[in-house]
Amino acid sequence: MQNWVVADRIAIRFLNLVFSYTFFFPEASLAEIEKIYEIAVNGSDDEKISAAAILCGASLVRGWNIQEHTVFFITKLLSPPVPADYSGTDSHLIGYAPFLNVLLVGISSVDCVQIYSLHGLVPQLAGALMPICEVFGSCAPKVSCTLTTGEEISSHQVFSNAFNLLLRLWRFNHPPLEHVMGGDIPPVGSQLTPEYLLLVRNSQLAILGTQPKHQACIASALSGLVHGTPVHQVVDAVLNMMFRKMGRGGQPLTPTASGSSNSSGSGPEDASLRLKLPAWDILEAIPFVLDAALTACAHGRLSPRELATGLKDLSDFLPASLATIASYFSAEVTRGIWKPAFMNGTDWPSPAANLSMVEQQIKKVLAATGVDVPSLAAEKMYGTLLVEVGSSPATLPLPLAALVSLTITYKLDRATERLLTVVGPALNSLAAGCPWPCMPIIASLWAQKVKRWADYLIFSASRTVFHHKSDAVVQLLKSCFTSTLGLNSSPVSSNGGVGALLGHGFGSHYSGGMSPVAPGILYLRVHRDVRDVMFMTEVVLSLLMQSVRDIASCGLPKERLEKLKKTKYGMRYGQVSLAAAMTRVKLAASLGASIVWISGGLTLVQSLIKETLPSWFISVHGSEHEGTESEEMAAMLGGYALAYFAVLCGTFAWGVDLMSPASKRRPKVLGAHLEFLANALDGKISLGCIWGTWRAYVPALVTLMVGCTPAWIPEVDVEVLKRVSKGLRQWNEEELAIALLGLGGIHAMGAAAEVIVERG
Fold this sequence. Notes:
Blueprint: H1 2-21, H2 26-42, H3 45-55, H4 58-61, H5 67-77, H6 97-106, H7 110-118, H8 122-138, E1 145-146, E2 152-153, H9 155-172, H10 177-182, H11 194-207, H12 230-243, E3 254-255, E4 261-262, H13 268-274, H14 279-298, H15 304-317, H16 321-335, E5 340-343, H17 355-365, E6 379-382, E7 385-388, E8 394-397, H18 398-407, H19 414-433, H20 438-449, H21 454-463, H22 465-468, H23 470-485, H24 497-502, H25 519-526, H26 536-552, H27 558-565, H28 578-618, H29 630-654, H30 666-681, H31 691-708, H32 718-730, H33 734-742, H34 746-759
């Protein structure tokens, strides 16, 4: 009793400190956290649970100066040691079920997961969760632990909380940027899937000497279900549990290997008894359950409302099944074999109440980009005639309709938030990949349910415009350049700069709904969905050179330039200074390099330097302002822009020294590009670009390498350096030629000395 009183006093004192004095007494707060941690390790069962709740409260969310210690303590508590006096045959973790469940629920919010990600502890947390999933997913829920509050905790509940949290962590476990973009190791993003988790689990069992049952618990390949097998019996039991309220127990829903339907006709009581099974066994059967239910709905044996209710009962019974449901429906949408579901408000929920509002808001969001938004009205094709059918209901693929119907059955509270954060991203990703206007339809349905989410849903729907129109991506990139350089009259980007590129977020900042979103924010949200990434180098290069021409002509169209030439003072008030133009050129080049880097990383940068740039110099390009006074300046600025563009791209990809993991790939690509320069300077290659652009590019590129990336130069073959140096000397760039050879290493010193002697 005395220990409990002490723990209670410490808890109260600590909470007061967190809310009142966290920012003023970090040492005292850390001391209190350590005391709470000691209670969580050595206290009684009730004291441990109380201490765990405190650690997962304000000290984790608000105590920024002690967060790193708190997340570390919580992670350690998720892996409690085996008690010295423990002699049971089952895992010792089972006895910690109430304690572990408090921790799992406490760190399952979106904010807490983000905190773990920011502190780089996602892998450690995942490592602590996997044993919990294995232990509680492998034991039958025969015995439930009862808390002092009267709440019962089953193994299914602990497993589901750990499993869903683990799957959510997969989204946040990103490797260092230089590893993903650097190309030294395969990007792990493609491995961070539930299927990968399954492989890890089975490999761990194999290492421990346990024969792994390959539980295809996420999205099984439905090769066939044999009648009378244990899996078939579990499928029958789950189906009866899902649809017992509708009196469907005697109707055939279970698929067999032949594709026909069969059912053992077991009653609800048998189903309840048979579902006292380990969670892994139930998850193994769920893909077959979903296949049977979806097939029955498609053939009219199960109404859409009954399907949604049954899915809700399944997810309530085993919340971990939500991951399987989302994964299975996503796979079925990809297969494309299901008939569409008419969202008419009778069979399926209807988005008609605010679909037109969503369309108008999407147009407002994209107003600053100049991208056309496809109509949301239903359309049908008759021969070559496209006919709009305004009265036709919206449609979704049947699996997607089932998934969204399931999600909108949830009441919004703290408990269901954990579940929606599992299925929500999957629903969003699936809808974004479906034909237009699936995502706006889902946004309309959810906006009816939760009005405060309308801004986010509309913004998500706006992003899908770029998934279905490649020319929309090009237009978006063009808007990025014009807004950054201040070359348009949009109220969002009239002053240019980074502020115009990224804006100030999104939302209903003005009366009348959503405000236009800056193009940079939009591109950051859609660039991962660009299907043909390799064409981005050509697009960005073209937009960069167009921007240079606009800068050279003050951003004025050709008609206004001709008018200015005829005025008394000519171009005096229209022509910008060279210094001001160079500032904007550097800004354009840095934007172009940033877009290339975030779009495709190392692979795209190397393709740009090794292939795209040489091809561009060889090709013939017409000047938009040919014959005007700005042509010469545009050509010169274009060379400078390309030089800055190339060096910045290389710096992003390789770094400026030998420390970057990707720097070992630099000599080959850089050497090939400088060899192209040498061949062109020797006259072995005919160039199609404007001479002024080439004349400005080569010295500018070498100057940047000498001044900013001198570590690159010794990696290039000495003979290539000599040839480039010779070409520079022919252009009277002797000092630059000597500087290039001087950084070329020992083998280039002789050539540098010869140049100096000849010059003297």
